[in-house]
Predict the 3D structure of the following.
Amino acid sequence: MILGTVTQVGRYCAPRSRGSKWCLYLVLSLLLVGVVSYKSGFLHYILVAQVLKRRHYSMQELSDMIPHETNKLLNHSSKSVVRKQERLDVQSQDIISCELIDPKVVFVIRIAKCASTSFVQLLKSLSKDSAYNLYFHPSGAYDWDVRTMTQVADMAKAKHKRFVYARHFYYVDFHRFDLNDFSYVTFVRDPVSRFVSSFLYYHYSSKAHIQSILDPTHKNETLLNCLDQQHEGCAHNLMTRYFCGHHRFCKLGNDAALANAMTNLNKDFAFVGLVEEMQLSFKVLAKTIPNYFGNLMTSEAGMVNKNEHQRQLSEVEIERIEEANAADVKLYKHAQTLLHSKALACGLKH
């Protein structure tokens, strides 16, 4: 169909303006439209073909029209990534089950201010009685290079029994490093609550290493100023960044970052819990990966790193935080739906 459209352009142009730069421009533009629309199923170029059949259009009018249609296609295609992901989300929800898994390696991504320290305390307790080795590193290691990824993959492959690796780090597709028997586990938190907790932690924590990170000139800034400037503890769409990984666009928190984060979540995360529904999350985790976390409910989870300060938010502040963290809001809602679906499949009430 694309070639047919280009042929129509040639038949129209040849008798009238042989060798004209406008004809060349039209052919190249239509080819571009065809390439963009080929896999997306867009039909705008058909409209162009229909217009070409009408002989009373001038070449200038046609040249003005072609870029407009091309731009429409380019803008439309950027939105298709999200629409495709939404279809995948619906499909993934339809096939949710309570299937038990027993991976050789469990990677625990510690997302900042999502109860990760509290969860690690439970992991340490469980590792004493469970048949797995625990590797925990308290510091962050966010932007890994290929060398670091390879080292971690090799470490996991060298273990002869179940292995849990817990650390602050962005998602890595370890399939690329010949590590296939693994799953991801993590917790997410209501984006507004997580953002405020992070702001308070960085600006009011009594811990020396946190105080050393904060620029002294930012100490007394307002929450909204920190939000606007993305100072320490106020990065936008941080949860999306963890799920998205190491691509450059993951830093942007845009549609591409969200789509990639959703894809990774659906593909490699056996479990994503909610801080707001911790007990339900523990039950689902124990049901899903029992050889690692089957005794989870026998442990008492105490919250660690609780903020020393509390803060009431105005409606304006809530709206601003949600707007700036729109990707995280969508990601959290998706994780919430998946957790509830998994709980239902496992016969658990929520």
About this structure: The longest helix spans residues 59-94. The chain has two domains: 2-92, 96-345.
